[in-house]
Amino acid sequence: MKKIMTLSILFVAFGLYAQEEEKEKKLTISGSVDAYFQTFITSPDDTQPTFGTAFADQTGFALGMGNLIFSYEGEKVGAVLDLVTGPRGEGATFNSDIVDGIVNQAYAYWNVSENTTLTFGRWNTFLGYEVIAPAANFNYSTSYLFSSGPFSHLGLKADFALSDDLSLMLAITNPWDTNDTSTTGEYAYGAQLGYKDQYLNLYYDSGNNGGLGFEIDYTGGFDLSEDFFLGINAAYNDNDGEGFYGAALYPQYTTSESFAIGLRGEYFSLHGDGDDLPSVFATTLTGSYTVNNLIIKPEIRLDTWSNNEPYLDNDGEATDNLAAFTLAAIFTF
Length: 333
Prior knowledge:
Blueprint: H1 2-24, E1 26-40, E2 60-73, E3 77-85, H2 87-93, E4 103-113, E5 116-124, H3 144-148, E6 152-161, E7 166-173, E8 188-195, E9 198-204, E10 214-223, E11 228-239, E12 242-254, E13 259-271, E14 279-291, E15 294-306, E16 311-312, E17 318-319, E18 321-332
Antiparallel strand pairs: 1-2, 1-18, 2-3, 3-4, 4-5, 5-6, 6-7, 7-8, 8-9, 9-10, 10-11, 11-12, 12-13, 13-14, 14-15, 15-18, 16-17
Protein name: Porin
Keywords: Signal
C-alpha cells in the first residue's frame, strides 16, 4: 500500500509539474487582414499620382496586407515569427527576403533578468509614431516621417527597465533597411530612452550605400481627458548635409466604445544644398468604427506642397495639392 501511495503521489506531482510547464510555455497566433477603396477628389484616378508616402497608394479597390504572427513565450525565452503578404507587406519588406515579401519580423529573445531582455533577429523599427500593421495605427494612410525612416532592423538589441517609468534600449544592426545582410562591413547603432510613454530615439549609420545617416526622433502623447488623446512625433535627419525634418500631431477623440475620430496634421520638409527646398503640409481626417474584430476607417486626406507641383489636377495640369477619399476595412484576430 505504501508503494502504491508513493507512486500515486509521484504521478500527481508529475502531472502538476507538466501543467505548470504548459502554463509557462505558450504559443499564440494572431494577425490581421486589410483592404481599401480609394479615389482622388482633385485628380483623375487613372493618372495614378501618389502622396509619396508608404502604402495605400492605389486607386479603386486594393489590398493592403495579410499578416500572421506566431509568438512562443516561455518563462525565460521566446520567439516571434511575423509573416506578411500583399502590397503593403511587400513594400514593408522591400522584397528583400528569400521568399519575397513574406518575413516582416523574425526574432528570438532571452529575459536575462527581471529588468533585462536581449533580442536577436529582425524586428520593426523603434523610430516614429506609426507602424507597419494598419490595425495598430489610427490613420490608415501613413505619414511622411514614417515613410522616410527605416521599417525594420536586423541585429541585436538590449532592453533595460531602469525603473517603473524609465527604460533604455541599445541596438547594433545592419544599416538602414538592409534586412538580410551587410555586405560592406558597416553597421548601424540605435538607442531609445523612454519615460512614462515618452520616447527619445537615436539612430546612426554611415549614410553610405543608401543609408539613412543620423536621425533623432521624439514619439509620445498625452491623455488630455478621458476621451481625448494627443499623439506627437517630431524628427530630424541628416546624411552628409542633406535630409529631412518634420513634426506631426495626432489629436484623437473617442465618442463611444465603437467610434473615434482623429486628425493627423503633419509638416515635412527636405533640407540640404539650395534654397527653397520642397516641403509639404498634410492633413488627414480619419474615423474609426469597430464591430467586434472588424475596424472600418473612412478617411479624407489633403497634401499641399510648397515649391513643388508633383500632382495633376482634373484638367491634367500640374498642381501642388492632392485630395483623396479612402475607405478601409481591417480585420484582426
